[in-house]
Design goal:
217 residues, alpha+beta, two-stranded antiparallel sheet, 6 strands, binds iron/sulfur cluster
Length: 217
């Protein structure tokens, strides 16, 4: 999601890499689920997020649209986000995440966010988002709790800049019909068409990305 804001207002002003230490741990969020409620449509899901949730629930994308996710326009492209009503549909009665090992990337890194610059990205600490006190330091790579980190970081980067290029292309063309066609095809390519469990997700994503770039850019 493109946001035009001063990072000094929302963060401590630092940019973190995977090897940096950051003050985020919050005693396992005991008694708090504040960031799992009232988030509107802000937990936007990338193809890996949807693949994880589909795997966890044994459902296809279309079935998730019935209760767990919804579609919204983000920077000119239709993308899925977690449904909040106003709690996240995955928040259980104990105030815990019922899909914890499969939770989306935004949830994994919170209260860190990402800042994209010069074809790459780094992490920022969003200082107004989590009110837990007495936080301890932890290495960013440990905090984000994501396997295959190298492949994951490439995927995050490639997906973001692909969407940015699509956004710029659509802005330049100013063609409503084209916009509808491209956004529907992006949904189909990257979300609706399931990823097989037999092969690495990132390899499958990379193939689809090459194909989509040829087609749209
Ligand atoms: S707001 Fe902070 S303490 Fe509360 S659930 Fe979220 S990360 Fe945990
Ligand atoms: S998926 Fe889990 S961690 Fe993310 S908002 Fe929902 S309940 Fe919270």
């Amino acid at each position: 999601m493109l946001r035009d804001c001063d990072i000094n207002e929302i963060s401590d002003g630092k940019k973190y890499t995977l090897t940096d230490m950051v003050k985020v741990t919050c005693d396992d969020c005991k008694g708090c689920s504040a960031c799992c409620s009232g988030m509107g449509s802000s937990i936007v899901l990338d193809p890996l997020d949807v693949h994880r949730i589909c795997t966890c629930l044994g459902k296809r994308f279309e079935a998730l649209l019935e209760s767990e996710i919804e579609l919204n326009i983000v920077d000119g492209v239709i993308l899925p986000n977690l449904k909040m009503a106003p709690d996240c549909v995955f928040l259980n009665e104990e105030g815990r995440c019922s899909i914890h090992p499969y939770r989306p990337g935004i949830c994994r890194i919170f209260p860190l966010g990402r800042i994209y610059e010069d074809g790459d990205f780094s992490y920022i600490l969003q200082v107004n988002e989590c009110s837990a006190r007495n936080k301890a330091k932890v290495k960013v790579s440990k905090w984000i709790d994501t396997p295959d980190l190298k492949k994951n970081q490439s995927f995050i980067r490639d997906w973001h800049y692909f969407l940015r290029d699509i956004h710029d292309m659509l802005l330049e063309k100013q063609d409503e019909q084209l916009m509808k066609q491209v956004t529907m095809q992006i949904l189909q390519f990257f979300y609706i068409e399931p990823y097989t469990e037999e092969r690495d997700f990132y390899e499958q994503f990379a193939e689809r990305l090459v194909h989509a770039k040829k087609l749209f850019l």
